[in-house]
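Protein modeling request. Please complete all fields; requests missing the sequence field cannot be processed.
Requester role: graduate student
Desired output: 3D structure, token encoding
Chains: 1
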Amino acid sequence: MPILLDPRLPAFESTVPRGIRDDVIWKFHVYRIALFLSYLARDDVRRPRPNGRWQSIAEQLMAAVASIGANVSEGYGRSRPVDRARFYDMAVGSLREAITWYDATRAFLPGELVDERTEQLTELRRMLHGALRTLRALPPETRLFG
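Delivered output (146 residues):
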């Protein structure tokens, strides 16, 4: 199911603080989806696991997933396309790292859940690549606002 059609998305959005929802970046679907995936990942890692290795994997996974939204938001604040694109590139790197960490959770989480998160992250990666293509097509002297 496409992530924008996920029935959990509206429920999540209603829990996001007004200060975030009132910011212009909230209109950028990539940012909203990145936050939503962080929310889902938090639920995923809260599942208790007996193996001590789980804690380390969970921390790495959360850091990678949180970094996606952090880089998108930092890039969104940049006015030049080249600067914004640099942060979106870093978000793609964090996204790929998150996919790798989700794969490492297969020993602890149901395979269907890991597959679903991988598909969702892959969909977000396509969105980010679309944003990057748009930015790279702009003349370097363009000033973006947001």
